[in-house]
Amino acid sequence: MEIETTRLILRPWRAGEEAFLAQFLQDERVMYAYEGAFSAEEVKNWLQWNLRLYQEKGYGLLAIVRKGDNKIIGECGLTDQIVQDETYSEIGYHLIYDAWKNGYAIEAAKAVKEYALMQLGAKEVVSIVRDTNLASMNVAIRNGMLVKRRFIKNYRNVVMPHYLFSTCTSTISQK
């Protein structure tokens, strides 16, 4: 799975790229919706999880490489997420703080949505967003998603309300 947009290349993470992931997974500003930055061990596990997903599912979160300077500025891709006993294909995204507010998240998320619906034949894709994460909510909305439901996650012993934003092939065909 590799996706190209006007300004970005989304490609699979590679073994040994923990330092690139750490740029955003260990940044408190980026990870505030997760109740804090990841430890080095959590970053390592995150990479291993993605590498397993590629093998088992054929997809996962992808490194976002900015074409202009070949710099990895984040990740965006698909993972399976369970919400209230239903499994969804979720578009997830994280960007290094310095890349925020440049349209990279929506550019990547739109490309992943199109790939999931058109190439993988997904009937629906979602984005799961904590209710305090306005920037991610705006990405989901700009990606043609609407709130399907509100639910509660308990993460790191914190009760966190979340929204499940959803889009499906019928919304694509109407445009």
Automatic annotation (TrEMBL):
- The answer to whether keyword Transferase applies is yes
- Where does the record locate the signal sequence feature? none
Q: Keyword annotations for this protein?
A: Transferase
Molecular function via GO = acyltransferase activity, transferring groups other than amino-acyl groups
Q: Does the keyword Transferase apply?
A: yes
One Pfam family recorded for the sequence: Acetyltransf_3
PROSITE patterns annotated for this entry? GNAT
Q: Where is the N-acetyltransferase domain?
A: 8-165
Which PANTHER family does the entry mention? Answer: GNAT FAMILY, PUTATIVE (AFU_ORTHOLOGUE AFUA_3G00765)-RELATED-RELATED, N-ACETYLTRANSFERASE DOMAIN-CONTAINING PROTEIN
Tell me the protein's name: GNAT family acetyltransferase
